[in-house]
Amino acid sequence: MKQVVIIVLLGMLLLLTACGPSVKVQRVSSDTATDFGGRWNDTDSRLVSEEMVRDMLSRPWMSRFSQTEGRSPVLIIGTMRNLSSEHIEMQTFATDIARELLNSGLVRFIASREERDEVREERSDQQYHASEESAKRMANEVGADYMLQGVVKSITDRVDNTQAKFYQVDLQLVDVESSETVWIGSKEIKKLVERSRLRL
Amino acid sequence: MILEAAKPSWGRFKATFSILLTGLLISSCALTHTMQPRGKDLEHALEMRDIPAALSIAGKPKQYRPKDRVLYYLDAGLLNYYNGDWKKSNKLLQKAEDAIEELNTKSISKSAASMLLNDNSLDYSGEDYEDVYINVFKALNFLKLGDREAAFVEVRRIDEKLGYLEQSYAQMEKELHKDAQLKSAKKSKNTKFHASALARYLSLMMYESEGNFDAARIDLENIRYAFNSQSELYPFSMPELIDPSAKSLAPVLRVLAFVNRGPIKKAKEMHIHSSEDLLLVGSVDETVDVFSLHWPDIHEGYYFKFALPDMVERPARVSEVVAVTPDGSRYSLAKLEDMSLVARQTFEIKKSLIQLKSITRSVLKGLAAEKAQSMASRNSSSLFAALMMIAADVAVFISENADLRLAQFFPAQAMVAEIPLSAGQHEINLEYYSAAGNLLYRDLQTVKVQPGSVNLVQSWCL
User: Fold this and answer.
1) Got the DSSP string for B140-166?
2) Structural domain A39-194, CATH architecture
3) Is A122 left (phi over 0), alpha (psi -120 to 50) or beta?
4) Would the pLDDT of B2 be above 70?
5) What is the pLDDT of residues B75-95, one digit of tens each?
6) What is the rounded distance in angstroms from the CA atom of residue A152 to the CA atom of residue B395?
């Protein structure tokens, strides 16, 4: 009889523990590295953009430009392509790069094509509806000196419950006038994702 | 040991307890049975192309159990594709894909339950072909949404999955050969599924649309390779496709039609008779199928029964598809992928493992029930013993049902045609015919053909 009581008590304990809340929310700092499924995430985007922008701005093209032009170069972000096997939010990656570039204080930065279209529309609108003093001038945009283009590629290898994920981010800076490539940067990320073979 | 003869009262309690427990597990049904909406209403709605009605039947509460969530996501995802709700379809198919990935981790508790009862107690984690074709439909949805880059991601995921499948089939084969018991059992088919012509065709279209003709040509070669290297999956002629690297400047309109319903699983009753150290396993349905299995320490005279899932093709409604252009030209669509055949062949690969697991479970459960019966008869009144014996038999037979779960709305075949057309807007009529030559359905679509775009008409008739 004693054994039956123990079995029943253990069963009840198991049932009670299963009744606990299944969702827990914890606030963490936005720069906390979170890697759950091994996929490309905000941390990868941030770290890659920081490192690549740092590398780009430390290369000889910067000093050459300053010497010949006597000012900071003006950059624009061109196409960022996702050639990986994951749905990567390339807009977020482009924004991370833009932020790093601007925060460096070493370059000037032009808004993207879509953003410029909106601004142009506003400027056009001002020509008719704003006062003469406050309306902004037409055809006075700053032209970009360089365009930054990039791709993200990935290779995944999987054996049983272990996955090796390899990401390669390639960026290149192209002179808008001469189409000359002045800098190429590459950053690789390798992740080993081990899934537990068992769960309860 | 289920009973201890030296302690009759405790032994009797245990025998009763174990039988009651088995009964309880079976009666709870949630463990041994699964649910998926079926029935005439659903079939009728599909035949009438009334997808909103089919969706409302599938979406009713309690149509799917939580452990069958992958089935719900697949069924609802595909129905939304047919309904033209590309975004919703992708959302559901993404959930199916995520759940399949998550369920690749084995649950200890569910695995134990599946060993004790049957595979229906496990969460449904999708058949291999379902996991691969999820990405085909996601890619098609993304193309409809005008997101070529996202569609490319899906095609790359198919490549990754096929690479992994090739590895795991090789591993499975190795393990089966290692298993001494299975050496005498039926061997699994040596089928390979390492390349999908359909996936490569999607890739070809996308590369061509972005002007990467060399990559598109490589995809055409890969389609040829898929046909040549996997004759069990492609036992038909490859459609005549235009070489994208050698084509004239005229744009090509591609027509992709999905026809007929994918396969279903049916239970196949199997019988086991034992002799010394040997099991004779067989089925007697349309064909007699018997094989032997070495089983150390078993004695002669036992008989067990169990059910195995078998994947069978549904009768085909559509036999021919013709695309008619505005000038009256008729283009017959050719079969590019027999998805139903891929489903059945890839299922065959796993069949030996399912079979071995079911035989092991049936024999162990049968022996345990036999032991419980003999103990109950020794320690109980004749009426109680008789009841316990019947309960044990019923418990074994009922709990040993086959896992027949499968997504219901995958098509059976993908057919294609390539039509050179001038740039501009065109009306294309797709005519679906039965084997008797009766027109089943006519799908009129207006399509804008333009260079640099994926000029694709998607259609279906299940």
Assistant:
1) HHHHHTT-HHHHHHHHHHHHHHHHHHH
2) 3-Layer(aba) Sandwich (3.40)
3) alpha
4) no
5) 999 999 999 999 999 999 999
6) 56
Distance CA B135, CA B200 (A): 12
Number of helices (H), then strands (E), in chain A? 5, 6
Task: Tell whether B286 lies on the interface with A, counting CB pairs under 8 A.
Answer: no
Q: What is the average pLDDT across B291-297?
A: 83
**Nearest Cα residue to B162 out of B198, B194, B135:** B194
User: Strands across the sheet with B330-332, in order?
Assistant: B330-332, B320-324, B424-433, B439-449
Cβ contacts (< 8 Å) between B66 and chain A: which residues?
Answer: none
pLDDT above 70 for B102: yes
End-to-end CA distance of chain A: 29
> What was the pLDDT predicted at A16?
46
Q: Which residues of chain B does A82 touch, with a Cβ-Cβ cutoff of 8 Å?
A: 149, 153
Greatest alpha-carbon pair distance for chain B in Å reads: 91
What is the model's pLDDT at position B9?
54
Q: How far apart are CA B310 and CA B322, in angstroms?
A: 33
Contact B156 A84 (CB under 8 A): yes
Tokens, residue A196: 């537990």
Is the distance from CB of B48 to CB of B42 less than 8 angstroms? Answer: no
Question: Comparing C-alpha atoms, which of B246, B258, B262, B152 is closest to residue B207?
Answer: B152
Nearest C-alpha in A relative to B10: A1
Asked if the C-beta of B276 comes within 8 angstroms of chain A's C-beta atoms, the answer is no
Among the residue ranges A100-104, A110-114, B2-6, the one predicted with the least confidence is B2-6
Take residue B60 and report the two structure tokens written for it.
Answer: 């009713």
- The full set of domain ranges for chain A reads 39-194
Average pLDDT over residues A75-89: 95
Give pLDDT tens digits for B24-40. Answer: 444 444 455 555 667 78
Buried b (16+ CB within 10 A) or exposed e, B181-198: ebeebbebeebbbbbbbb
Collect all residues of chain B within an 8 Å Cβ-Cβ radius of residue A200. Answer: 107-109
- Residue B149 at interface with chain A, using a CB cutoff of 8 Å: yes
**Count of A-B CB contacts under 8 Å:** 39
Query: B182 with B356: CB under 8 angstroms?
Result: yes
Over the Cα atoms of chain B, what is R_g? 26
pLDDT at A85: 94
